[in-house]
Amino acid sequence: MTRRPPVGLWVSGWVVAALAVLPAVYLVVRAAEADASTWGLLLRDRTWGLLWRTLGLAAAVTVLAAAVSLPLAWLTTRSDLPGRRVWTVLLCVPLAVPTFVSGYVLLAAFGTGGVLEEALTRWGLPVPPVYGFPGALLALTVSTYPYFFLALRAGLLSQDPAWLEGARSLGLSPARAFWKVTAPLLRPAFVSGALLVGLYVLSDFGAVALLQYDAFSRAIYVQYEGAYDRAYAALLGLALVAVTVVVLVFEVWLRGRAGYHRSSKGAARAVAPVVLGRWRVPALLLCGAVVLAGVVLPVGVLLYWGARGLAEEGGSLLAPALGSVLASVLGAVTSVVGALPLAFLAVRYPSRLTLAMERVSYAGYALPPIVLALSLVFLGVQVVPFFYGTLVMLVLAYVVRFLPQAVGTVRSSLLQLNPHLGEAAASLGQTRSSVFRRVTLPLLRPGLLAGAALVFLTAMKELPATLLLAPIGFETLATRVWSATAEGRFAEAALPALVLMAVSTLGVGLLVSQEGDAPRG
Questions:
Q1: Does some domain include residue 164?
Q2: Which of 6, 173, 234, 318 makes the best surface tag, with the fewest CB within 10 Å?
Q3: Residue 7 falls inside a structural domain
Q4: Mean pLDDT in runs of 10 for the chain (521 residues)?
Q5: Is residue 478 part of a domain?
Q6: Are 469 and 377 in contact (CB under 8 A)?
């Protein structure tokens, strides 16, 4: 097989790569057109206030998520906690809850007219604050702590028990051995979890908007919706991208170059679980409290308001459900089709250029969703107005945003596919298209389906791009939840939120089922 890619594959790869990087480039061009007065707005006190509020929220959520996740990860990996696997699954379920649903649950429970707010007021008990920083902190912590939890679990499961045993043999108590040996070795897991949680909070739009916390993403949306000159919104978007880049650079510095692997291969063996003894009940109470906040409360509140919604309006989920499925299916199929040329070029014809083209596909994923949506709005209005306000722009947003998920799965499947199979088929007289259709495509089917499923599940929860780019009158479950909650119609928002949670739980179940686990003693 020649090392030069076919012209059709080369051209399609360039087209997909150009589409992926186009929003970021256009945003820069748009911001460059801003006049001096607009740039002056970027440096005013309000912008600095937005910056500190956004960073403060990200830091607080990260610290709180780490504080919650560390004991949970230790209990489910190193102790004799009863029902460790069940607790692990339950503690991961909040991953299935979109942040705007978490915000909605807080409002529906403790907001004005909320189900628990009325009960607490009737009993003379204080009602926890849900608007502003406290609500955003709680909603985002509940939705994001599983990222930290999974990273710390993976770090604990991969540690050699001989290190801890060596520390104990030198006379260290269990607590000192943990902080002297185990905790330092968890540094990569801490950094990884902090990066995931921090970036998620920086880019979140739904929770901060519903709970009325002035972060960058909410300010960008408000500026876009309410101002005639939208160049300032573009500059705010670029500022948010700059903050994201600074966080990524800080993560690389924090990770350092220290080695955390064993010096020799060694032999895997079971970790003797720590007997909790009298700490078993407090440990169960801790796990129960987190599951209560992350699973029981959201499901209970949604079921309560869902029952009221059925009684009051009889439910009208068909249109938003069909809208979600239609847009997500189109986004998933288009993303997988777009991922094919990039994955083939990177795997079958590796070079600096093809690898760069594959990396470029991650540009849209690196942009905060609200910034990506804003750039596509500008692009649609000024460059391709005939597509603006149509389903094409929404699907394009999904493709640019979620293309890396499809590229990753297709690339992994292609790396496991022996290229000699195609060469053997070609030697029998088959054309390239026939080899692809009859040999390569059937073998790639699991990877293609996995990539499509991943994009579909993520697109079902997408909110900012759908709000800004969906055609007039086009509704999805996510936009139904957001619009109903924003107007205080909790009953109307409950059922679509429940359906979203059910669909998202499928993805979380797949994630947890594939997690490796260490042998138990």
A1: yes
A2: 318
A3: no
A4: 75 89 79 75 80 92 94 90 88 83 86 80 83 92 89 80 74 79 82 83 85 85 69 77 77 63 53 82 93 89 81 69 90 92 88 82 76 83 84 92 84 77 73 78 82 84 87 88 80 84 71 49 34
A5: yes
A6: yes
